[in-house]
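Hi everyone,

Forwarding the result from last night's run.
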Amino acid sequence: IVNNTVPVALRRLGYDDPQIKAIVEYIDENGTIEGAPELDPADLPVFDCAFRPANGTRSIHYMGHLKMMAAVQPFISGAISKTINVPNEATVDEIMQAYIEAWRLGLKAVAIYRDGSKRSQPLSTAKDKEKGEEAPVARPVRRKLPDERASITHKFSIAGHEGYITVGMYEDGQPGEIFVVMAKEGSVVSGLMDSFATAISLALQYGVPLKVLVDKFSHTRFEPAGFTTNPQIPMAKSIMDYIFRWLASKFLTKSDQQAVGVIDQEAAQTPPSAALPASTAAPAAPVSAPKAKVFELRVRDTAEKTITFQNQDDAPSCPDCGGLMVRNGACYKCLNCGSTSGCS
């Protein structure tokens, strides 16, 4: 945009309207008045500015700023709020000399700004494309599932509230989307679960690890909560708790499953003899032998303690985490979270 004072200055310098029009059009097209047709080179200093034009070479020398301030300083009592602009290529010695000259001229204060010394500045003559390309910013990329994908559908029931979980998977078997359908369609819970499942699906497709989601939403507590029909998750604190612990049971490692309270059914169903070391296995001695009978009783006692430690068919579920508790004296304790039934 050509400053409106340029035509006024050209007219006062004696240029006619056609010449002024040609010079203004040249400035608008080239970004500088230098080289404009019909312009006398002797008039160029009149149009010098604080900054060098993008396509020009001229600018007001820093001494021009200092001398103008020095001319005004005797007429005011305070300092002057005027920046001394120096070009980008100004040296340390030149800037030091500017301060010395300001002192010699009797200025009370001086502020120097070197062109381009800040990332952003109020006045700039260069276009954005001339600043060079900026480093690319890393952004998450959505990995959509193929149009045809394998899926798993699981029916669940939490305290009588039934629903279905459907998980769509990538080619490598990892989950990429989930759908949650509650038996009571049209309810508030159903609508919330639809929205929540969509948000989790987008998170999975944008690369959020499933373990992070499982750790975040497992053991969240709100209604409906209660007993389930899944032996791996006998009690759920909420629908969210059940969904993510079930996802952990299908897609995470054994250690990650144990960390969130998923019960290992294979370990729970291990026969007593398989849970014992080979060195403690019952000897093939006749049962009628007294020593053998005593030894056999001790082995059975050890085996019963081993299987009790893993799981008990008659043990209640932990009221805190939902895992099956084990007998501890006359009471029960939870090996997952440490809760007890009250007396141990």
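DSSP finds ten helices and nine strands in the chain.

Cheers,
N.
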